[in-house]
Amino acid sequence: MSDAHLYAATRTPFGRFNDALAGVRPDDLAATALSGLLDQAPGLGRAAIGDVVWGNANGAGEDNRNVGRMALLPAGPPVSVPATTVNRLCGSITDEVSD
User: Fold this and answer.
1) Who contacts 5 (Cβ-Cβ below 8 Å, separation ≥6)?
2) Where are the transmembrane segments (predicted)?
3) In Å, how far are 25, 64, 78 from 86, measured between CA atoms?
């Protein structure tokens, strides 16, 4: 088994339904975050990335595909770098509390 190394982490903003981010495609938003993340580790060559795991909670519509892979392609690593998307709904954050 090889070692795993985490160089940086980020998340995308979230908003209210049909608010400012409603017109932004999920993979475009993710690609912006991923590119910014990679810029935080200038010593890490994009070709040195072994794998990308992208989290997505409650994906539907355009979210319901491999957003991690679709975001990775415009971020610059070679197409040979794999990426996957994990739906972790139980780990998502909400600003509403029901009684």
Assistant:
1) none
2) none
3) 18, 11, 21
Task: Please give the chain's pLDDT, 99 residues, in tens.
Answer: 577 666 667 777 777 777 888 888 888 888 988 888 888 888 888 888 888 888 877 677 666 678 889 889 888 889 999 998 888 665 544 444 444
Torsion of CA 78, 35, 33, 82, to 10 degrees: 10
